[in-house]
Structures are given as C-alpha cells and as structure tokens.
Amino acid sequence: MHFLNHIKFLFMTAFLLLSSSIYANSILVMGDSLSAAYNLKLDQGWVSLLENTADFQDTNYAIINASVSGETSQGGVARLNKLLTTHQPTIVILELGSNDGLRGYPLNKTKANLETMIQQSINHGASVLLIGNRMPPNYGKRYTEQFFTLYQALAEQFNIESYLPFMLDNVALNDDLMLEDGLHPNPEGQKQVLQNIMPFLMPMLSK
C-alpha cells in the first residue's frame, strides 16, 4: 500500500512539473454558479467552452476554475490569497458579488470585499478581468442601479481596462437561453456568455 502511494505521489509530481513546463501562464477564475456550470455538465459551462476554443488553445495558458456555486464576495476573500500563492496566475477573472446582491447584503461590504480581491491579485502580479452583473428588477430600481454601478466604480478606482459590465448581456432576458430558475444560463446561454467574455479576455492573452 505504501509503495502504491509512493508511485501515485511520484506520478502526480511529474504531472504537475510537466504541466508547469507546458503552460507558462495561467488564468484563475474566481466566480460563483455563473462560472461553475450550475445544473449543467461541467463541459457545458463557459470556462470549459473557452478551453476548447481554437483561439484559446493557440495560447500558452492553463485555466484554474475556482468558481463555487453559492459563493459570496466574503467567501472569495477567504479563499483567494491561498489560490494566488498556489497557482501564481497571470490573469484573475473576478466574477463575484451576485449572491451578495440576491441575499441583500450591504453593497459597501460587497465593494470592500471586491476591492480586497482586486488588490490582492494586483499585489501577486496578476492582471484582472472584472465581470459585473445585474440584479433582477424586483429588487427595486435604486438597489439594482447601485449594484450595477458598483463594478464600474471599481474598474475606475483600480484603472481596470478589462471590465465587462454585464456578463449575461443578450442572455438574461431570453428564456431560450436560461434555465427554468431564470437566473442561470442553459447550455446555449453559456455559449453566448463566452462570446460576451472573449472580446475582453483575448487581448489580455496577447500582452
């Protein structure tokens, strides 16, 4: 048993070393259910779809998808520093905050948590792709507008050039592209989400 464990350890070590030599750069995706392929097969989510595009495969990047369904900005803060230290990503895709909004968390707390994650990413030498979202209209005009503009304020505060204001653009209001819960994209919707993200991500990969 000990011999087999030793063999497994050597195999995993060799695999990680090989991976690090093949991929000079990596992308860390910090998201919630919108990036964790909620209620779908993993390969139907936009992150897996990205990995399988020809344009992405021509780059020297690996993807670490650390997205967790139900994740809040506070949960992201608790996990991010260790992930940055472990993976040393070149790019961090930050897609968090929607669950804060859905749960009615104070927006100043959400903003402070996102500020912390952006600053931590910058301190580790990573560029940030900031992805925003919108709340359903039943949350009230004042709250939904404040939530939406929170991300714009962060992009300006940190001078983030790669900022996607609305991840579900051309998806959220199309029933054919959403699951029955009305909050998450279905497989076809995930394809459109990827199309929304690609124009902001691809220029970052060529720098």
TrEMBL record:
Classification via Pfam families: Lipase_GDSL_2
Source organism superkingdom: Bacteria
Keyword Zinc: no
Domain SGNH hydrolase-type esterase, chain residue ranges per copy: 29-191
UniProt-listed InterPro entries: Ester_Hydrolysis_Enzymes, SGNH_hydro, SGNH_hydro_sf
Keywords: Signal
Signal peptide range: 1-24
Keyword Metal-binding listed: no
PANTHER family in the cross-refs: THIOESTERASE 1/PROTEASE 1/LYSOPHOSPHOLIPASE L1, THIOESTERASE 1_PROTEASE 1_LYSOPHOSPHOLIPASE L1
Protein name per the record: Arylesterase
Organism for this UniProt entry: Marinomonas phaeophyticola
Lineage of origin: Bacteria, Pseudomonadati, Pseudomonadota, Gammaproteobacteria, Oceanospirillales
